[in-house]
Amino acid sequence: MDWETSFDEYLEHLCDTIGHSDRRAGLVGYCQGLMLPIARKSVEPLAAHLEPHRVSARHQSLHHFVSKSEWSDAALMEQVRRWVLPHMNPSNGLYWIIDDTGFPKKGKHSVGVARQYCGQLGKQDNCQVAVSLSVATEEASLPVAYQLYLPREWAEDPARRQQAGVPDQVEFATKPQIAITQLREARQSGAPNAVVLADAGYGNDAAFRANVGELGLQYAVGIQSSTRVWPPGLAPLPAVPSTGKVGRPRSLQRRVPGHDPVAVKDLALALDPSCYNTVSWREGTRAALSSRFAALRVRTSHRDNWRATPRDEEWLLIEWPIGEIEPTKYWLSTLPEETVVQHLVHVAKMRWRIERDYQDLKQEFGLGHFEGRGWRGFHHHASLCIAAYGFLVAQRLSQGSKKNSEVRSVPALPADYIPRGSSAHAATRI
Fold it and tell me: Residue 305: which domain range?
């Protein structure tokens, strides 16, 4: 089947989720525009390249579809997942990857904009941040949930919420809380069992790890070097035995001086050098990627003196590259006790796939190009970008690697076309 026919079938598959038939033209046109290899993929450039001689009318219809129309982002993304997932081969492992991405923004009126850490800039700055959940195999990955993080100053400001159209049911939630909700909803919709991967921004949250376990999922998540654990073979002391006196028997575990958990960094530094072995996890662009790792069984210690029984053991994975003066990365994992270190490393390092998603979504599909200020438009634009990307993922898996620029040509613009916002912008377009 040729590319055009397959894409048309894909768009028909997506149109089943958006309700009214008059929305079909908006979805088809928007996705067609996102597939074009053009530099800017906000509404006006999409309209200009889709219908160069009817830019104003096309702009108005696309703007209404993405910013005003009441279709479900979750339903669309579930439909994308249903198309792409059968093309993904889980025989070598299936993963849920949690991450967030930032979009630098000027001003203060775009929904969710605040001074916060922006990964794209590598520093604190004015930006929007969205949390995503992706399904991944060794060969491919795809976001299946995507939600804007709403900082507390936004969540608790009724005037700003109303102006940006933030739904009433959206309350302040931390990024780990958003991620858990995404995982829970994915599982409820029939998404498959998979290992959860996340960086220390999520893995360092004890409640997040506990919630993943309660969903029946294993994890391999980054943690900070200051995270405290019980070294191998150690655990909190049991409760003080009852003395027979009147009163409720003591049941909580205890810590005493000299019997305390330790920071994972201190534990790593105290290990014998023979505990560290070189492990390769995948082929890079020039050579195999490898480093030195140690793995040991520990118990986490967060509030365990409020528990009656010790926590289960889990893996602590430590990376200490040759030439570094101390370990650089740490993970906790609930993979089975018999798991070998090579597989632990392979699983922990699978989180790299999300970087490919964000690179393609931003560079090829204009994920950060939406110029509106509202909640609905922000999420509709992102869902449509992911929908267009999902088709490309399926094509890569079924027909081999193919770049976006190779599958669609750009219609020529009229010689007298002037982009909106330019100093020479014409008052009227026909």
Answer: 214-234+258-351
- Using only the alpha carbons of the chain, give its radius of gyration: 25
Mean pLDDT value across the chain: 88
Could you tell me the sign of the dihedral formed by the alpha carbons of 231, 234, 235, 239, in that order? negative
Q: How many CB atoms lie within 10 A of CB 402?
A: 12
| 3-class DSSP state of 393 | helix
Instruction: Classify 251 as helix, strand or coil.
Output: coil
How many domains does the chain fold into? 1
Which residues touch 99 (CB under 8 Å, ≥6 apart)? 131, 132, 134, 198, 199, 351, 354, 358
d(CA 421, CA 64): 19
Note the residue count of the chain: 430
CA-wise closest residue to 330 among 342, 320, 341: 320
Q: Which long-range contacts (CB under 8 A, 24 or more apart) does 39-47 make?
A: 40/366, 40/369, 41/365, 41/366, 41/369, 41/385, 42/366, 42/369, 42/370, 42/371, 43/371, 43/372, 44/419, 44/420, 45/419
Query: Are the beta carbons of 223 and 265 closer than 8 angstroms?
Result: no
Least confident of 105-109, 221-225, 265-269, 308-312: 308-312
Extended beta strands in 137-192, E state: 141-148
Q: What is the pLDDT of residue 160?
A: 95
| pLDDT for residue 140 is more than 90 | yes
Nearest to 357 by CA among 146, 190, 208: 146
Token pair for 223: 């943690």
Lowest mean pLDDT among 98-107, 201-210, 283-292: 283-292
101 in a domain, yes or no?
Answer: no
More confident residue, 312 or 34: 34
- Distance between CA atoms of residues 65 and 377, nearest Å: 9
Position 417 in a domain: no
- Is 179 buried (19+), middle (13-18) or exposed (0-12) by CB count in 10 A? buried
Residue 106 pLDDT grade (very low, low, confident, very high; cuts 50, 70, 90) = confident
Is the pLDDT confidence value at 242 over 80? Answer: no
- Check whether 22 has a pLDDT greater than 80: yes
| 328 Cβ contact partners less than 8 Å away, ≥ 6 residues apart | 319, 320, 321
Strand (E) or helix (H) holding 331: strand 329-333
Residue 238 pLDDT exceeds 80: no
Q: Is residue 67 part of a domain?
A: no
- Residue 292 near residue 351, CB atoms below 8 Å: no
User: Considering the domain boundaries, does residue 318 fall inside one?
Assistant: yes
